[in-house]
Design goal:
Alpha-Beta Plaits; mitosis; ATP binding; Structural maintenance of chromosomes protein; alpha+beta; SMC_hinge_sf; Rossmann fold
């Protein structure tokens, strides 16, 4: 086993979480500067393992917490992780983690994260090999020096500590304490025995007088028994006679009670029926009024719809005639439009063809005319111009003018062509827009039809929801009435319950419920009466036993009761008794078992949590068949008994009962309150459902009205869109007509300009042809022939052109007339008729006679239903009124009979009360006589018949005489015989106890002797082992030297231990050791006096003799130098460790006072012991020798600014460099 890891946080200078691992299972060295925290690291291990720090005060714990910059550390922990592969710890794990956590107010141990006590930790460590008597597995700084300066007697104490004599000393001290206590008790027993012997002698003399007294006393008790027995018999006889009378009265009372109860029940039932019938009558009246109002509304609605239907039908007839006329006119217009369009379709192509022909003829005519004009101009040039040059100049000028005119005409042609194209595009747009508007008109018409259908559906749903809402309102009103009746019932039951208790108690109970609800106090369960239920036959018995306790308030504990009482006292709100469940103890004895009696508690049903309260009130009660059985069990079993009629016999003897009015029963009232509350709760739920249904239907009606408004608004929007589309379509049609006319004019203008341009081109060509020609005064033959031909051609063309123009003009006129008729009359009127037809159609949809007739049918049905409901309710009201009158008469008769029965019952109750009072007196007399007989104690056998036939006067006279004789024996010790027997038994018991104590004292003395011997043996054994290992270790540390331990005795003789393995160095002990029994006794006597045993007392110290040269004189440790003393002290420590080995060792700078040679020897010894004994070493050093033989290295670093230490694992070279640096600083 060895330490694998150490984790600490917040401890001393280690503020942050620090984990040091892994540790070697052999030798580990920790290096660091002075003040860096090495000692704190070792102290952390001691803090977990050492008993020295087992109990720490708060100041000590705070001192161990880290103090430095930053936030204060509130807790710290040190955790050691052990390798347990060798199972030295008694746990089935290869690794064990022990943690100790401290804070200002806590100090806890954990083993593998489970909270553990320090005692369990110590037990684990001892089982793993840690000796509590040997603290030298941890060697702190300064302990070497302290050990080297230790006195001989202190060294002996150390040896005793290592030997574990503390256990023996503690056991011996305990044994001596027990022996002293035993001796003290033996002395006391002896004193008591002496007193008992003296007292027995005195009692022997008093026995004779006692016998005479007892004879007279026996006669007295016989007389008293006879007198008391006579009184008992007389009381029993009177009780039996009274019981017969009582039974007769009970039977008569029961008969009257039953009759009265039957009448009362019948009266209550009839009164309840009357109240219910009155409520029902009021409800019927209210319903009848509502039904009448509803019938009136339905009839008014029906009449209004009938008028609307008639109007709709009349309007529909007129609109139908108008619609038919417009439809006929529209059909005729459609046919006219079709005929005109057909004729126009024929005329337009003819017109276009003639127009084209006319244009062609005009172009030819212009061309021929240009040729003719050119020939005539050519023939007249000679008269106009004097030379060709002048002519050519003039031609050039004309050409320039004509070119400009041609250019202008060409621009005009381009402009007209662009205008034609634009008008064509506009015509296409108008056509597209016209198509779109027609689609819009069709779409809006369809939407309006769908909106009309949707409106019809919504109206139907609205009417249905409205009718359902009315029904829900009626149900809600009925539930409200029923809820009021239930509330009145509950109030009546609560008034009855309140009348059965005081005002302060009632206020207190009510205040408790209110305060618990207002202040949110949990754990208040309410009055006891509300927490259980029972059958009707046991109610009287339960109420008789419970009494005022029925209104005790059950709570969880005292704290809840205190909270409620605090508020009640502050508000001064009544008085109440609490029953804290946590305080109620079930200490009730078992009840007797019988066929004639049942435990009352078993007849109640309640939750298990309330059983302590129920048992506290009803646990001691029995329900008995009769009053006699009740009296019997009350006297014999000391329990409260009660009959089913409520007659109660207390376990203390009191008898109570009589007539009880069930109407004023608390339990009956509570049952009625429960029933009324349950009914109210159910009605509240039903009313809430009805209200929710009404609210839901109201919301539905509102939603449907909203939907109707939205649909109407959408329909209006669609109608507006429909009409706007129709208006825009008419505008588009007009625009289309105007566009067509304008386009035709532009096309004509374009054709004219094009013809003019062609003529100009021909004239220009003729002039250009004339340029450069000779100037002639007459035409040539060819020119004349051409002129003649051209003139002839021109005449023909002019005749053809005139004919074509005439035809074109006729066709154009017809076309214009057709287009005008279509655009300005036929199509315009058709559009107007279509719009009017749409308007008529929409009006018909708005005032649909069929839908109005459907509404009228629904209204008619609603009116009929309302009429039938009103008639039905009127019939029911009349029947209820008649039944109420009849029932009221019955109730009055029953009330009169009930008053008679109550008077009779009250008289019988008074008579029964007198009987019960007399019975109580007789029962008391009987119990008194029985008690007196019981107090006589055990009677002689003759007492039962000695004075059986003697009268009471004689018995009293004789008793007076006996009592007078007994006065002479007033001084007699009436308990002498009993005391004699008692003292004799005490003497026997004390003698037996004294014998036991004597044996115990002897055993304790033997135990003390055994402890002394075992302690002596332990010291001898330990001294031998330590002495042997001391010599061996010293030789290993100083090969040329030798050493031994010397046991110093009080007689001056020294027992020397050599370095031989076989010789312990102790002198023979047989001559000085006491062996006889007397010697042991004297030794025990010395132990009892607080002295040590003789064989141990002769040792006064342990000295050490050493020689560092191996030859010559040996020296005591006081004669050595400082370094030599450290070597000797280390040898002793290693010797102790070898004698009582531990799993690991902690050495804190043990080599600080050694020279290099001895440091090397110590390091070698540690390495050897770690390897050969499987022991782990964790050491600190400032010298390099330890580093040479170590296996793992750690360095402690301290931050002066943060005041925090940390530990890090380093290699051997780093550790050596650090040590070298330290040594260089010291040099």
């Amino acid at each position: 086993m060895h330490i694998k890891a150490i984790t600490l946080q917040g401890f001393k200078s280690y503020k942050d979480l620090t984990r040091v691992a892994p540790f070697s299972s052999q030798h580990n060295v920790v290096v660091g500067e002075n003040g860096s925290g090495k000692s704190n690291f070792f102290f952390a291990i001691e803090f977990v393992l050492s008993d020295e720090y087992q109990s720490l005060s708060q100041e000590q714990r705070v001192a161990m917490l880290h103090e430095g910059a930053g936030l204060a550390v509130m807790s710290a922990f040190v955790e050691l992780t052990f390798d347990n592969s060798d199972e030295r710890f008694p746990v089935d794990r290869d690794e064990v983690v022990i943690r100790r956590t401290i804070g200002q107010k806590k100090d806890e141990y954990f083993v593998d994260k489970k909270n553990t006590s320090r005692a369990e930790i110590n037990s684990m460590l001892e089982s793993a090999g840690f000796s509590r008597s040997n603290p030298y597995y941890i060697v702190r700084q300064g302990r070497i020096a302290a050990l080297s300066m230790m006195k001989d007697n202190a060294r002996l104490d150390l040896l005793k500590e290592v030997a574990g004599t503390r256990v023996y000393d503690e056991s011996r001290a305990q044994s001596i304490e027990i022996m002293e206590d035993t001796d003290e008790r033996r002395t006391k027993i002896a004193d008591v025995l002496k007193y008992i012997e003296e007292r027995l002698a005195e009692l022997e003399a008093e026995k004779k007088e006692l016998a005479e007294y007892q004879e007279l006393d026996k006669d007295r008790r016989c007389l008293e028994y006879a007198i008391y027995n006579g009184d008992l018999k007389a009381a029993v006889a009177e009780l039996e006679a009274l019981e017969l009378t009582r039974q007769e009265q009970v039977e008569l009372a029961e008969t009257n009670h039953r009759a009265s109860a039957d009448d009362s029940e019948l009266l209550a039932a009839r009164e309840a029926e009357l109240a219910a019938l009155g409520g029902k009558l009021e409800e019927l009246k209210a319903k009848l009024k509502a039904a009448s109002d509803e019938r009136t509304d339905a009839l008014e609605n029906k009449a209004r719809l009938e008028l609307r239907v008639a109007d709709a039908l009349r309007s529909g007839s007129t609109k139908a005639q108008r619609f038919a006329a417009m439809r006929t006119e529209l059909d005729e217009l459609t046919r006219s439009i079709q005929a005109a369009e057909a004729r126009l379709a024929v005329v337009e192509p003819e017109f276009e063809a003639v127009k084209a022909e006319e244009a062609a003829l005009a172009a030819q005519e212009a061309s021929v005319k240009v040729a003719v004009d050119a020939l005539y101009a050519k023939s007249g040039r000679s008269r106009q111009f004097s030379s060709p040059a002048e002519r050519d100049a003039w031609i050039q000028a004309e050409l320039e003018t004509m070119d400009a005119l041609v250019a202008s005409k060409r621009d005009q042609v381009a402009s007209l062509e662009a205008e034609v194209a634009a008008q064509s595009t506009a015509a296409d747009d108008v056509a597209t827009r016209r198509t779109a508007l027609k689609a819009v008109i069709a779409e809006t018409a369809g939407k309006m039809e769908s909106f009309n259908a949707e409106l019809a559906r919504i109206k139907a749903e609205r009417d249905e929801a409205t009718n359902a809402r009315k029904e829900a309102w009626r149900v809600e009103a009925r539930m409200g009435k029923e809820l009021e009746a239930a509330a009145a019932k509950a109030a009546s039951a609560e008034r009855l319950l309140r009348s059965s208790m005081s005002g302060a108690a009632w206020n207190g109970v009510q205040s408790v419920s209110r305060i618990a609800a207002q202040h949110g106090i949990a754990g208040v369960h309410g009055p006891l009466i509300e927490l259980f239920a029972c059958s009707d036959e046991f109610m009287a018995a339960v109420e008789a036993i419970g009494g005022s306790s029925l209104f005790n308030v059950v709570v969880d504990d005292d704290e809840v009761a205190a909270q409620v009482l605090h508020v009640m006292n502050r508000e001064k709100s009544g008085r109440v008794t609490f029953m804290p469940l946590s305080r109620l103890v079930n200490n009730i004895p078992p009840l007797p078992v019988s066929d004639d009696a049942l435990p009352l508690l078993d007849q109640l049903s309640f939750e298990n949590v309330f059983e302590p309260a129920m048992r506290n009130v009803f646990g001691r009660a029995l329900v008995c068949r009769s009053l006699d059985i009740a009296a019997h069990f009350a006297a014999s079993a000391s329990v409260d008994c009660v009959t089913l009629d409520g007659d109660k016999v207390s376990r203390k003897g009191a008898l109570s009962g009589g007539y009880t009015d069930k109407k004023r029963s608390r339990l009956v009232a509570m049952a009625q309150v429960r029933a009324a509350r349950a009914e109210s709760s159910a009605l509240k739920a039903s009313a809430a459902e009805a209200k929710a249904a009404a609210v839901e239907l109201d919301a539905k009606v509102t939603s449907l009205l909203s939907q109707a408004q939205q649909v109407q608004a959408s329909r209006a929007d669609a109608l507006d869109a429909h009409r706007r589309a129709q208006d825009e379509l008419a505008s588009v049609v007009a625009q289309s007509t105007a566009s067509v006319t304008s386009a035709s004019a532009v096309v004509d203008s374009l054709a004219s300009v094009q013809a003019e341009l062609a003529r100009l081109d021909e004239e220009t060509a003729a002039l250009r042809a004339e340029l450069g020609t000779p100037l002639v005064s007459a035409l040539t033959a060819d020119d004349k022939a051409a002129l003649d031909a051209a003139e002839s051609r021109l005449a023909d063309l002019q005749a053809q052109l005139l004919a074509a123009s005439s035809t074109r003009a006729q066709l154009e006129l017809e076309k214009a007339e057709l287009s005008s008729t279509l655009a300005n009359h036929l199509r315009k009127r058709a559009t107007e008729l279509e719009q009017e037809l749409d308007g008529v159609r929409l009006e018909a949809q708005e005032e649909d006679a069929a839908s109005l007739e459907a509404e009228l049918a629904a209204a008619t049905k609603a009116a009929e239903t309302a009429e039938a409901r009103a008639a039905e309710l009127a019939t029911a009201r009349d029947a209820a009124a008649k039944s109420e009158a009849e029932l009221r008469t019955q109730v009055e008769k029953l009330r009169a009979a009930d008053r008679i029965h109550r008077t009779t019952v009250d008289e019988q109750a008074q008579a029964m009360e007198r009987i019960l009072q007399k019975r109580s007196v007789l029962l008391a007399s009987r119990e008194e006589a029985t008690r007196k007989i019981r107090e006589l104690g055990s009677l002689p056998g003759e007492a039962f018949d000695k004075y059986e036939n003697v009268n009471a006067k004689t018995l009293l006279r004789k008793l007076h005489g006996v009592n007078r004789k007994l006065t002479k024996y007033n001084h007699v010790n009436k308990k002498a015989l009993d005391q004699y027997i008692s003292f004799n038994e005490q003497r026997k018991s004390l003698r037996e106890r004294k014998a036991v104590l004597d044996e115990g004292a002897a055993s304790i003395r033997e135990l003390i002797d055994s402890l002394d011997e075992r302690k002596d043996e332990a010291i001898q054994r330990t001294f031998k082992g330590v002495a042997m290992h001391f010599a061996q270790v010293f030789r290993e540390l100083v090969p040329s030297g030798k050493a031994s331990l010397v046991m110093l005795t009080d007689d001056g003789a020294d027992d020397v231990a050599s370095d031989s393995d076989d010789d312990s160095g102790l002198a023979p002990m047989d001559e000085n050791r006491p062996t006889s029994r007397s010697s042991k006794a004297s030794a025990a006597k010395g132990k009892a006096a607080g002295e040590g045993p003789e064989r141990i007392r002769k040792y006064v110290g342990v000295a050490m003799k050493v020689s560092f040269t191996g030859a010559g004189e040996t020296f005591s440790i006081s004669q050595l130098s400082g370094g030599q003393k450290s070597v000797v002290a280390l040898a002793l420590i290693f010797a102790i460790q070898r004698t009582d080995p531990a799993p690991f060792y902690l050495f804190d700078e043990i080599d600080s006072a050694l020279d290099a040679a001895h440091r090397t020897a110590v390091a070698t010894l540690i390495s050897k012991q770690a390897a050969s004994h499987s022991a782990q070493f964790i050491t600190t050093t400032f010298r390099p020798e330890m580093l040479d033989v170590a296996h793992q290295f750690y360095q402690v670093v301290y931050s002066k600014t943060a005041k925090v230490s940390t530990i890090q694992q380093v290699d051997q070279e780093t550790a050596k460099d650090f040590i070298a640096g330290i040594m260089a600083q010291e040099a």
